[in-house]
């Protein structure tokens, strides 16, 4: 076996120039997969965590009716006794905090112009504790103290439309839980951005007490559960789910991935692009290696004939070509992984910022995540591809007639 491997290794480097060219092509493909896959992994991680930090949280608790029917009035499907429910959820392991939210809609006016808003009511103290504080463009975050009046945050697009800045006042009008029209004056404390233009054009955030006053209800829309690590989502979900039975209202719990529609769409699209690039690399490797191995077979025709004449089994020849291809694949995979890792490290230090993605207003840094699973996958793909590409010349070599092979010029 040792002599078999040694012979295969020597055959790989018999024509060094051709072997180096093959290694360069294949390693380039592996490096490309490592870099593109690492960049996509960085995008997925960043998008996942930003989606969670923007207020989605890791878990959300609702009433079951929230998913069954539309509300006739505000907070018809809201949570009663949410403080006790929040205390129960906060007692689970890995839970960083639980905060209540209210979602509502209405009109905001500066006295001369009105615009539609998408409102969210939050508990500022708990939001800060859980790391859900938004990106402030100007001004400051909500104080949360009752003595500070009806504080509000506006998205940058809505603030521009209303022509307001921190310190200015607006009037908010919405429909109460009884179906009546109600309004309050708010003080703009800060301008925020989510990175999504459509959201920034409609976003308005109030404190929880202010929203409950204008909606005239003690309910909340949902509870948002924040964890110490996204990896613990499934474990905490399994721990909280049995505790939701026995409450006066029928409750439901959802993981962040079930609610993050945009994240799933982006991940699906990027995964499709990566698969397409992998197919291109597969085709490139097959064509390059098959051509190299076929040329090697023609050059070694008389040698193959001699081996057959000496009684070498034809299956042994097929195995020899396969081992040569595997050796080439292993060398190319290692070279490609190290090259991709090195280039990725340089890119991570470069400080390059890419233009904002479609629908975003903030540029994205160019980073490459060094994912061991991705590197191993790219390497295995190349080795398997080279082994498959070697089958045709290997089988063809094993089927040569001894007389014709010995007479080959």
Mean pLDDT across every amino acid position:
83
Structural class: alpha+beta
Helix content: 40-55%
Sheet having the most strands: 6 strands, mixed, barrel
The end-to-end distance, rounded to whole angstroms, is: 31 Å
Stretches where pLDDT is under 50 for at least 5 consecutive residues are none
The proportion of strand residues reads 15-25%
Task: Report what the structure shows.
This protein is an alpha+beta fold and 409 residues long. The chain is built from 16 helices and twelve strands. The chain has helices at residues 2-12, 16-56, 65-68, 82-90, 124-129, 156-162, 197-200, 208-215, 233-240, 256-259, 261-299, 301-309, 314-350, 372-389, 391-398, 402-406; strands spanning 59-63, 95-109, 114-122, 135-139, 151-155, 169-175, 181-193, 203-207, 222-227, 251-255, 353-354, 364-365. Helix 11 (261-299) runs parallel beside helix 15 (391-398). The chain is elongated.
Relevant terms:
elongated; 19% strand; six-stranded mixed barrel; 409 residues; alpha+beta
Set out the fold topology.
Layout (H helix, E strand, L loop, with lengths): L1 H11 L3 H41 L2 E5 L1 H4 L13 H9 L4 E15 L4 E9 L1 H6 L5 E5 L11 E5 H7 L6 E7 L5 E13 L3 H4 L2 E5 H8 L6 E6 L5 H8 L10 E5 H4 L1 H39 L1 H9 L4 H37 L2 E2 L9 E2 L6 H18 L1 H8 L3 H5 L3
Parallel strand pairs: 3-8, 5-7
Antiparallel strand pairs: 1-9, 1-10, 2-3, 2-6, 2-9, 4-7, 5-8, 6-7, 11-12
């Amino acid at each position: 076996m040792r002599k078999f491997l040694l012979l295969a290794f020597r055959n790989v480097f018999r024509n060094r120039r051709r072997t180096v060219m093959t290694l360069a092509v294949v390693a380039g493909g592996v490096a490309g997969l490592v870099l593109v896959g690492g960049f996509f992994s960085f995008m997925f991680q960043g998008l996942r965590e930003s989606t969670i930090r923007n207020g989605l949280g890791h878990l959300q608790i609702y009433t079951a009716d929230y998913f069954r029917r539309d509300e006739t009035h505000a907070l018809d499907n809201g949570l009663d006794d949410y403080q006790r429910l929040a205390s129960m959820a906060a007692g689970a392991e890995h839970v960083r905090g639980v905060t209540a939210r209210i979602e509502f809609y209405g009109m905001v006016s500066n006295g001369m112009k009105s615009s539609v808003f998408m409102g969210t009511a939050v508990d500022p103290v708990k939001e800060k504790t859980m790391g859900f504080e938004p990106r402030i463009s100007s001004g400051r975050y909500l104080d949360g103290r009752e003595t500070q009046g009806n504080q509000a945050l506006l998205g940058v697009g809505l603030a521009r439309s209303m022509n307001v800045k921190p310190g200015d006042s607006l009037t908010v009008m919405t429909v109460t839980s009884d179906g009546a029209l109600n309004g309050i004056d708010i003080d703009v404390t800060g301008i925020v951005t989510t990175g999504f233009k459509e959201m920034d054009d409609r976003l308005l955030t109030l404190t929880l007490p202010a929203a409950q006053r204008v909606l005239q209800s003690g309910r909340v829309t949902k509870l948002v559960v924040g964890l110490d690590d996204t990896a613990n989502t499934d474990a905490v979900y399994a721990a909280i789910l049995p505790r939701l039975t026995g409450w006066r209202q029928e409750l439901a719990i959802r993981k962040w991935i079930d609610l993050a529609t945009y994240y799933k769409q982006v991940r699906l699209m990027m995964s499709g692009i990566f698969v397409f690039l992998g197919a291109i690399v597969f085709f490139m490797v097959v064509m390059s290696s098959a051509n190299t191995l076929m040329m090697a077979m023609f050059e070694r025709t008389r040698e193959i004939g001699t081996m057959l004449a000496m009684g070498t089994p034809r299956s042994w020849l097929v195995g020899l070509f396969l081992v040569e291809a595997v050796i080439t694949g292993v060398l190319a995979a290692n070279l490609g992984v190290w090259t991709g890792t090195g280039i990725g490290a340089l890119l991570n230090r470069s400080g390059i910022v890419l233009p904002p993605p479609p629908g975003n207003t903030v540029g994205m840094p160019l980073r490459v995540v060094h994912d061991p699973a991705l590197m191993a996958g790219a390497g295995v793909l190349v080795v398997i591809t080279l082994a498959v590409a070697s089958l045709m010349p290997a089988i063809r070599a094993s089927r040569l007639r001894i007389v014709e092979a010995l007479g080959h010029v």
